[in-house]
């Protein structure tokens, strides 16, 4: 397999995962803007959505002030935002197109029809309450792609590169969401915890589609400690850092087995997983949640770089 | 209605030719709604598969489908035998010509072609002089453009010896037709085309370089996803089971060409390049090229890799050389040309320029190095103003143009918004030359979908048809 092919598969999956995550973040931002203003105000909420999506700086370079309509456009359609849903879907498709022969027909059709249907949507069509429907559609398309990948792709190197990309992106996304609101999760907040905080905690869970599963696991009201535990250390929660890292490790192990290469990627991914396996929330809060998350993001990124270096991504 | 042009299907009395009898009956039986439904179905098939075509200079529409017309173009067994013989004669002669002009230039010494036509030609590559490509083949993959003007009137319009495209449409059109109209195939004995990828692979393997021991590794070199024919590059790589590479995937080291793989490197023996000569190797040609591979050309000359088609083949399909092809065939084969050339005026010659300028409204004028229907004048279809503007360009640089009579291209029925109607067609059979000549029966029929238009290029609103060669 060409190094460039591996890179394209990796990034194709990363961008589809990112499109889905951006859609979910936008959905949460939109939902907050519909709920009565408690305290800090809407503007702040779109700001944290932009930060969690990792694109606040770009937004402020283009627009003077944050408002809901502009933030939505920026997150979904703006060509100047490299992580807008439009750019994610287009980049994913271009990567898929560049390695067309490494994809199954189902995967290609999922990518291609998504892009074609997206191109026909005009931002103006989303006014008058059609935004949620559109965001659902984005998530469905991501599911369609993921389903066709899982259902049709040979479990060879190509599969492992795709999985590595998807789960590195997912871990990155979850860590960012936590980091934006880490202060509302600090134990000292629990005692304070009024309605505002409870809704903030719920927002975090919604951003990773975990507000229902939380109840199943903890059988309790939202508590910041549990929320952090669920999203960081839970081996069952499919968007937690621990879960994502498990899958990244499966991918790097699969690649090493198939190629005999990838020592550095395997070491980085393995060490990061060990950190999560041996961590506990006491220690994380004691040493600083923000510091923990910052370090995680750096190390997760290092796994990505090690894969690129080990496997000759150009 | 009596057709004013030669019609592929209808005879002058309105009945259909034997080869089209079943197709004509089928067209009569089909309810209109059916055709509309099948058109939509075909559109979905192609779009889903990502068969799109990038049109240069139209950013908003940088990917669109080439229209596919549902009515097949049918060629009888006898017609095809004739075409096949003519094409083989032509490609063998042109390859012999290429070998000659990069060696002793006997044809020039014999006074059959002026020396300056070769040596001053921008498509002549001095770097190729004295080099023997494997099997002495230069152009391995050829798309001979043929038009028809009458029962026996076949003309070769262009030889396309560099990197002809369109073969993926030939293959996908057939797939789509078999999917849409299986009943029609049951009533005909249509010669299959799907072996093309296998034949291409055999052809490429047969020209492995001297340094290659064992089974040669083949790769297709593409300029990348923004190239207009990218779909075809990926399609062929997939069908042949070979890697699709870009320049950045390749490097030359230790007298070999390598691909960068996830575990290190893998050697490439035969490179089917879909990149123009100028961009192949920044050390040998255009130094700014990002599409090629530094050192590729030296390696090629040293026998470490085979480049397909060979660099420098453009000299033989240059539109100025085109006028000499009948001479070329006679010179190298000792035979009369089987297929006609279109009479051609070379505007670089003052007398011929004067004739062309006096007859612009009747002529087709083309740039010598142009392709894809860009920068050409179709006299009968042009306005007075367009003709005047073109005349000025022609006078400013006459040697850059040739002119030909406007050919009465044959017509074939096509589906239009107002029902079936005759539209002009041409034919591009795909020819492979390695250890032998392999011609896939049929080829790509291009159709000018605009009423009255004679320009079939997809960049100018042309479409394609499935092309059937019938068995006896």
Written description of the protein model:
The complex is a heterodimer of chains A (314) and B (472). Chain A is mostly helical and 314 residues long. Chain A folds into 2 domains: 1-152, no CATH class; 157-314, no CATH class. Chain A has 17 helices and no strands. In chain A, helix 1 runs antiparallel to helix 5 (85-98), helix 1 packs antiparallel against helix 7 (131-152) and helix 5 (85-98) runs antiparallel to helix 6 (105-119). The longest helix of chain A is centred in the first third of the chain and has 32 residues, at 3-34. Chain A is globular. The model of chain A has no long low-confidence stretch (mean pLDDT 90). With 472 residues, chain B is an alpha+beta fold. Chain B contains 15 helices and 22 strands. Classes of the chains: A mainly alpha (314), B alpha+beta (472). Chain A binds chain B through residues 1-4, 6, 94, 97-98, 100-101, 105, 108-109, 112-113, 116, 157, 255, 259-261, 311-312, 314, and chain B through 47-50, 224-225, 230-231, 234-235, 237-238, 243-246, 248-249, 259-264.
Shape descriptor of chain A reads: globular
Alpha-beta classification of chain A: mainly alpha
Element order, helices and strands of chain A? HHHHHHHHHHHHHHHHH
Number of strands of chain B: 22
Our Rg estimate of chain A from Cα atoms comes to 19 Å
Structure annotation, total helices of chain A: 17
Structural class by helix and strand composition of chain B: alpha+beta
Termini separation of chain B comes to 30 Å
Provide the residue-averaged pLDDT of chain A.
90
Shape of chain B: globular
> Strand portion of chain B, in percent?
15-25%
Distance between the termini of chain A: 13 Å
Largest sheet of chain A: none
Q: Tally of extended strands of chain A?
A: 0
Q: What is the averaged pLDDT score of chain B? A: 90
Oligomeric state as shown: heterodimer
């Amino acid at each position: 397999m060409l190094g460039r092919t591996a890179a394209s598969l990796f990034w194709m999956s990363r961008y589809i995962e990112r499109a889905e995550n951006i859609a979910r973040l936008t959905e949460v931002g939109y939902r907050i803007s519909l709920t009565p203003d408690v305290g800090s105000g809407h503007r702040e909420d779109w700001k944290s959505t932009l930060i969690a999506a990792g694109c606040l700086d770009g937004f402020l370079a283009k627009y003077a002030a944050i408002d809901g309509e502009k933030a939505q456009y920026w997150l979904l359609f703006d060509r100047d935002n490299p992580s807008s849903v439009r750019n994610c879907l287009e980049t994913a498709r271009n990567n898929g197109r560049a390695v067309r022969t490494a994809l199954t027909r189902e995967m290609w059709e999922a990518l291609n029809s998504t892009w074609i249907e997206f191109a026909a949507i005009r931002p103006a069509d989303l006014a008058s309450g059609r935004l949620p429907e559109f965001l659902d559609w984005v998530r469905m398309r991501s599911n369609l792609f993921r389903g066709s990948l899982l259902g049709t792709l040979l479990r060879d190197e190509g599969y492992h590169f795709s999985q590595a990309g998807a789960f590195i992106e997912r871990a990155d996304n979850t860590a960012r969401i936590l980091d934006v609101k880490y202060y509302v999760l600090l134990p000292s907040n629990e005692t304070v915890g009024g309605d505002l905080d409870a809704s903030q905690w719920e927002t975090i869970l919604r951003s990773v589609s975990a507000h229902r599963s939380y109840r199943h696991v903890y059988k309790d009201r939202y508590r910041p400690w549990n929320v952090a535990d669920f999203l960081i250390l839970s081996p069952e929660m499919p968007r937690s850092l621990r879960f994502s890292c498990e899958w990244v490790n499966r991918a790097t192990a699969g690649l090493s087995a198939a190629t005999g290469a990838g020592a550095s990627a395997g070491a980085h991914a393995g060490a990061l997983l060990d950190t999560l396996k041996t961590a506990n929330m006491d220690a994380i809060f004691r040493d600083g949640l923000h510091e923990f998350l910052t370090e995680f993001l750096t190390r997760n990124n290092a796994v990505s770089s090690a894969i690129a270096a080990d496997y000759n991504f150009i | 209605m009596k057709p004013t042009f030669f019609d592929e299907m209808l005879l002058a009395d309105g009945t259909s030719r034997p080869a089209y009898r079943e197709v004509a009956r089928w067209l009569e039986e089909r309810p209109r709604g059916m055709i509309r439904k099948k058109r939509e179905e075909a559109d979905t098939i192609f779009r889903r598969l990502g068969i799109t075509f990038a049109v240069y200079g139209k950013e908003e529409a940088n990917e669109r489908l080439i229209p596919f017309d549902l009515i097949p173009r049918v060629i009888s067994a006898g017609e095809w035998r004739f075409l096949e013989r003519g094409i083989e004669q032509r490609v063998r002669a042109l390859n012999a010509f290429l070998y000659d002009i990069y060696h002793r230039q006997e044809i020039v010494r014999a006074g059959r072609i002026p020396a300056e036509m070769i040596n001053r030609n921008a498509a002549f590559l001095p770097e190729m002089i004295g080099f023997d490509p494997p099997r002495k083949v230069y152009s391995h993959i050829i798309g001979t453009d043929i038009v028809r003007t009458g029962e026996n009137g076949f003309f070769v319009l262009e030889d396309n010896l560099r990197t002809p495209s369109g073969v993926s449409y030939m293959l996908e059109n057939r797939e789509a037709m078999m999917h849409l109209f299986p009943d029609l195939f049951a009533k005909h004995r249509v010669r299959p085309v799907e072996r093309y990828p296998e034949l291409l692979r055999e052809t490429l393997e047969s020209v492995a370089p001297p340094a290659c021991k064992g089974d040669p590794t083949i790769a297709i070199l593409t300029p990348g996803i923004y190239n207009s024919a990218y779909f075809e590059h990926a399609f062929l790589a997939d069908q042949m089971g070979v890697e699709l590479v870009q320049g950045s995937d390749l490097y030359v080291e230790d007298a070999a060409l390598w691909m960068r793989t996830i575990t290190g490197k893998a050697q490439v023996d035969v490179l089917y390049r879909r990149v123009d000569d100028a961009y192949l190797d920044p050390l040998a040609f255009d130094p700014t090229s990002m599409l090629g591979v530094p050192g590729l050309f030296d390696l090629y000359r040293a026998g470490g890799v085979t480049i397909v088609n060979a660099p420098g083949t453009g000299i033989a399909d240059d539109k100025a050389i085109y006028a000499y092809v009948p001479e070329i065939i006679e010179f190298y084969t000792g035979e009369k040309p089987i297929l006609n050339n279109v009479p051609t005026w070379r505007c670089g010659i003052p007398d011929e320029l004067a004739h062309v300028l006096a007859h612009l409204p009747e002529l087709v004028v083309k740039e010598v190095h142009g392709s894809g229907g860009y920068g050409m004048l179709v006299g009968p279809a042009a306005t007075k103003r367009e003709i005047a503007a073109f005349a000025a360009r022609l006078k400013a640089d006459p040697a850059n143009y040739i002119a030909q009579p406007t050919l009465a291209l044959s017509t074939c029925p096509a589906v239009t918004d107002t029902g079936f109607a005759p539209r002009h067609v041409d034919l591009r059979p795909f020819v492979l030359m390695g250890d032998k000549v392999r011609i896939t029966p049929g080829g790509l029929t291009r159709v000018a979908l605009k009423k009255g238009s004679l320009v079939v290029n997809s960049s100018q609103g042309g479409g394609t048809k499935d092309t059937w060669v019938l068995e006896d």
